[in-house]
Protein: SAM-dependent methyltransferase
Organism: Paramagnetospirillum magneticum
Amino acid sequence: MSRKQTITKAFSAAAGTYESAARAQVWAADSLVERLGPIPTPIRALELGCGTGLLTRRLAAALPAGSRILATDLSPAMVQAASAALPALSFAVMDAEAPGVAGPFDLIASSLAAQWFTDLPATLGRLAGLLAPGGRLLLTTLGAGTFVQWKDAHRTLGLDSGIPDYPEAADLAAMLPGARVERLPLTLSYKDARNFLLCLEALGAQTPKPGHRPLSPGQVRRIITSLGSPCAMTWDILLLDYRP
């Protein structure tokens, strides 16, 4: 099974539990919609990685009446869940890295999905090419400071963390010349590190970085113990705003 298939399977399995654990995802979606500003006339919008529709619902409420939204996700189960809750909108199963849609779009939006892309710079370039004149690409993703507490606990114990290598804000901006990137770090409290891991599983976000060797149960217990209770975890959210 490829990494992309593994990610898709994990998110599909989490379609029924995703929103129960989506505190950071709600924060990111709200932050993105706050950056939209006034939009005077109806637009055509494409959403990538819609999941259960957290951002989709907010876009539908924020955009002018008559706007057309196509919300997409790699996971068929996520698309089914979102479309059942929002039957008036258009949905499709689609890989954001190979967008099989015809532009142009006035807005392309995505919230906490881009961190799963295999080739983020190339994908950003392709998405920019789907924008209409005066269009806008607005997305949130995870930055290098994400789960720093988890990574530090591994480092202290001489272990390798499975957290993927996320970009610094400046590196993300450099992937799409002309883009502005803002850091919006959010630190959440969990009952303990075990609860944090269960929340990741409920989100479908438990797939480790490529090539990571799983830790033994004993090593995981040592990390959980070292982080104590309650346990703080930082989501280093980056917001990219691009207008060609």
